[in-house]
Amino acid sequence: MQKVLIITYYWPPAGGPGVQRWLKFVKYLRDFNIEPVLYVPKNPHYPMTDESFLNEVPEGIKIYRHPIFEPYGLASIFSSKKTAQISAGIITTKNQTTIEKALLWVRGNLFIPDARKFWVKPSVKFLSEVLQKENIATIITTGPPHSVHLIGHGLKKRHSVKWLADFRDPWTSIGYHQKLKLSRASRKKHEHLENLVLNSADKILVTSNTTKKEFSVITNKPIEVITNGYDTLEDVNIPLDKTFTISHIGSLLSGRNPASLWKALAELIKENASFKERFKLQLAGVVSADVLKSVYGAGLKPYTELLGYVSHEDALRFQKKSQVLLLVEIDSEETKGIIPGKVFEYMAAKRPILGIGPKAWEVGQIIAKTHTGNTFEYQEKELIKKQLLEWFMAYKTKELILPAATIGQFHRRELTRKLSKFLQWE
Q: Residue 216: pLDDT above 50?
């Protein structure tokens, strides 16, 4: 059985989507004759936790842990709230305080590539012994945080190992990179490190064709696209909401604010008494103040339910019982290749997906091919309104049902099968 060392910052009890990709791969790797060995931080600063993920860690998996120094703890002395927001990825661009501007400048220019950079050198030293002890010839790094890839680079320089670098998100082309107040020198350094990783790793793994295309300009190394997926083990029969519930499961951060949707809903409430009586907007997860202000400004406060962060198990239940599932991405060129992991769980829930995102969004192609909903651009208010009314009329007659969709290729086990083939070295 082939042994692989997986180096990741996010691991249970970390919550959110970042932990799920490699938790699920680890869950199924043994089915394909691969024994995973994990390396994770001993004292991480996770923005959110979800104890339910601990139940999915396979028995007998060897996990190595080593301390990490994270400056977020020091920064919180000045503003614990703002530090927690930046750590969680909430970066507002309007009405920034002096503290916010300073924290962003420090984050972007002093902590390159990110605030977990101090874990790199001690990890390379620690893992050098682990590689020999476990007789490991293959290492995998997954980012963000992209500093994890620098651990892979350090080990590759010292040892004769094969290295697979997995990018759950892009590096320099990701949307929030433009908000970090980078100096010209800092931007060059990010680009240099990105180039270094992409050309030092033996193989590259990405989650979208858009990212593959971007990376192909920088490196000639083999690049494979393996999206995220779903992992529904049993088809639990959960009754649908009696209300016409439109649910967004996950963070709605600044920038993911489809004002056209809120206006379309407000108009439907005003024009259709039946819709007004039965409609509910359900938001589970972190919702930024900008988004809430827009939602409430459209007059939707009486119809909005804020659930806060919910466990992954609860998230799956909310997905199955909602009438419509909302998926939103930032409206920019940089985000057209972002494929949120929850889209595949949405598909498995078998509820219509209302996607709102950038032009040529890769998610739109997936949803269209699988016949699991419809996607629109931000400015297409009338088309969004027409679709919602169509689904509402079907809901009233209990006919809001999706056609049979072929989504088996996105099951986590099938994706792990694809990964196992990519991990075969010539």
A: yes
